[in-house]
Amino acid sequence: MKQIVDKDKLNNLTNEIWKSAERLRGKFKAYEYQTVILPIIVIRRLECVLIQWRENQAADLKVKRPGVKDKNILELVKKLELNSKKAPFSNTTAWTLEKICAEDPTLMEKNFRAYINGFSDNVQEIIEHFNYREIIGRMVKNSRLSPILNQYAKEPLGPDELTNLEMGYVYEELLRRFSEQSGEEAGEHFTPREVIRLMVELLEIPLPQKHISVYDPACGTGGMLSVAKEYLYDRAATDMEKANVQRLVTLHGHELQPGNYAICKADMLIKEEDAKIFFGNSLIPDAQNSPEPGDQLAASKYKFDYMLSNPPFGVTWGGKDGYEHEARKFKTTRYAAGMPRTNDGAFLFLQTMLSKMKPVKNGGSKIAIIFNGSPLSNGDCGSGESEIRRWILENDWLDAIVMLPDQLFYNTGIFTYIWLLSNKKPERHKNNVMLIDGRSYYEKEPKSFGNKRNRISAHHMETIKDYFQNGWEKGFENDHVKIFNTTDFAFHKVSVVFWQTNEKDEPGFVTEPYTKALTPANITKEQTFYESDLKFSIVLTSKERETTISFTLTPEDLFSKVFEKEIKTAFKQEIKILTKALKTASEKTRAVKAFIKDLDKSVVFTHRHYVSDTEYIPFGEDIEAFLKREIEKPIIRWKDSPQLGYEILPNKYFYTYEPPQPADELLKAFWALEKEAEEMLKKL
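Structure tokens predicted for site-specific DNA-methyltransferase (adenine-specific) (684 residues):
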């Protein structure tokens, strides 16, 4: 299969297509451009496929039935198209875009709609998800139907002119431009084919001897799935092996964006691929009362051999515009390990894929997924993200993480990571995780596509693949490969209270205002925290006078009892007068409590200088020894979190210290720049 991409050719084609989008300015809003342009591209590409199929059938019939008139040949071809399974799709009409444009312009809308309506059901679904019939009406109203159809009537968009790989690049470049025009955030990052190819290589999918299923929960325009199968087809050396790839490898996916879904379905149709692509949100249950279609492959019978995906980065799944309510219906099953923050659903995709792994006894599964840096370390110990990492690592599913170069993607220049997971890790991989630093393995793009300025060459792929396959051997580790035990990423989150020392390095005491509400509950918390005597000095002001009380509260004392006793002593005469006319003990008690409540209180208290801190301690270290070594103060008490936290910090593990430039060299460089600036000013 042809894998070489002519960037100049594709850029020229994309620019020509983009001109048609610019013709919509003033008639359609920027975010609507793709609703006009992408469907007509798909329709024209389908048309090219169908025209080629008809020509091939006609040529075959002429050989098989010499002497038959051309008119009759065409009739036979039409019957084959409509009445057999030989054609991937069909159209009941005799229209093409070129014929429609050649007819009376006043009949263009009528003829075009007839043409659209004539397609078979599998194309109708594509048209429906583009919502194209409504768009046609708006194109007519804004006098844009004729120029758009005329531009694409003869556009060479068939597979003979553009491979599926090349067409994928065109789709993605257009989608990138449409995204920028409409001001959308770059939440969707279309995956370069060389990155997908690297993911597929690392999955080590064998040439099939039996059925192999491949799944992508956010398949977009289908690039991941297509490249996975193309990879196997490329490796097949014999006709039998190629036939096995076509027959035994099945593709499955979900896609939520209607336009992307339609493009994916059309692409699979053109390739005559019997892929099971579903329209819906793979992260939520598929139920009749759901606001949108959900995971139609959620049943326990749907398990897959290989899964790969590049889910949207940083997409919010909570709030009024999200699907949090529906996703939480999986909280006790699929997402039982934890749920990430509602502003980043990346881990929901990975948990969805992990839930679809085949049991090891049935062959197990392998997963490759692209993440940004967030899933590596976001979330403190006990948070959803940390708990998900703990679940993955303690189950020993994480096999390797590959750090990729930046500026690989069309809509973002950030660094990304390929996570490789499996529930059938080889013996030498078990309880270990490989980190591969591939950030320097790239070459510059001859011509950038948006933010995509770098690319991974075949040589780089081979190097990374070699690291993954052979880097487990003892002594192999180098500057780009490191092996860790799964527990190396674990840590204790320990809350510790220590006694701060003064300038003489003696245990310190602090006298300070007490700014919290002077309630029994708050003081009980202070007694529990300090576990020692607390000295109080309280200025009390009544309507008549001001006085100060002082007392020491032990950890066992009841504050309300001591406080009330001190006030009764300080305001003995006032309380006597206040309660003199009252008859019952309860009346007198209420009066005293009201008096105490009405007093204005200014509180200062003296306590040990205790400091409450949190220490993150690597798993395996002796906690008491660590605290003694790191804090070097009297430790009062400490408490470990009920569970371990987990984080993965690849940059830390591959960090190389570079000493700062010496001061004299910096000064030389500064004065050189100063002199250069002076020369420039002289010229001005």
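The chain is about 45% helix and 15% strand.
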